[in-house]
Known about the structure:
By secondary structure, this protein is of the alpha/beta class. The protein has two domains: 6-182, RNA 3'-terminal phosphate cyclase domain (UDP-n-acetylglucosamine1-carboxyvinyl-transferase, Chain, Alpha-beta prism), CATH 3.65.10; 192-284, RNA 3'-terminal phosphate cyclase, insert domain (Dihydrodipicolinate Reductase, domain 2, 2-Layer Sandwich). The chain has nine helices and 16 strands. It has helices at residues 16-30, 50-63, 103-115, 137-148, 209-225, 269-284, 292-297, 299-304, 318-330; strands at 6-9, 34-37, 66-68, 77-80, 88-92, 121-127, 154-161, 170-177, 188-189, 195-205, 231-236, 243-252, 256-262, 308-313, 336-338, 345-350. The strands form four sheets. The protein has a four-stranded mixed β-sheet with strand order 1-2-4-3, covered by helices on one side. A four-stranded mixed β-sheet has the order 5-6-8-7, covered by helices on one side. The protein is globular.
Amino acid sequence: MKTLPVDIDGSFGEGGGQILRTSLTLSSLTGRAVRVYNIRVGRKSPGLKPQHLMSAEASRRITGGRLEGAGLGSKELVFYPGALSPGSYTFDVAETKASAGSTGLVFQTVSLPLSFARAVSNVKIKGGTHVEWSPPADYIKEVFLPTVQPMGVSVSVNVPQKGFYPIGGGELDCRIQGTEAPPLKPLEVARRGDLKGISILSTVANLPLDIARRQFERAKRRLEDMGFEPRGRFEEVSSPGRGTFVFILARFDNVVAGFSALGRPAKRAEAVADEAVSSFSSYILRQGALDKRLADQVLLPMALAGGESVITTIEVTKHLKTNVWAIEKFLPVSFSVEGEEGQEGTVKVKGSGYTGPA
Length: 358
């Protein structure tokens, strides 16, 4: 009997790109076809953007699967996955249209499936590495990957070139080692532990280095006024376009947290720094272990792991609830989310014990 695709309403909750990413990832892992409809409806420019289209195409390539209805602006697609295949891949977000679309979205779509492919894969992703509405490459490298590494996810990322809006042109070079002993180990991070250190990275690309210095000094002074002793640096980075970026990394005994801000024309360097510091301040004034972005990103490996995973977060977001809804459409798991939306919360799940494709 032919199995019907899993139906996913892309307008549910919040984060059309997130729902698509989660659906494609789980379709690749489980071998279950998926139909995603109402993709980004209600947005100023609805439907698939270049980064969404490349995420779908990347899923097709790593599985040898089939896509129906996928094109720029499409509000619906169907993905029929094939067999996961490790190897060397290059994915360029600008393949169909010049774009600074998020490389992070493509990375999140293919990294977990390839982690279960039982061999090494080398993946190059081209596009925007530091763009709005997407985790910057520094966050993936310094926060997400160190968090899931103890679970058994072995992925390394280098960023030889940064990509800012509107030109993009950045690169993520990823080495994905197949999981050696699936299933993944559960994630248990209920408390932060003691603060071990705070670092600041302030960068510019094709702009005066003094802008990076001003961003760094402002962030450092504000953190010192809060009673912390931050370290860090400011520097110029390689990129085809112009841009500025501030990244604050806080390391605790049990978790790392990251906070960032991007520059743009007419936005003062000091305002960029203030934005990143304000995000850090919102985190440090609460007790949850994971920042709100990280809490959303670890749900998938938690659901795949063996045993019960437990995390606390500074904020239960609509993105988190949306991701839980999508994951439960594919896997035989039931999340427990304690806490009101916008408030601190605890997330628990007994993982499915996924061991890889048949």
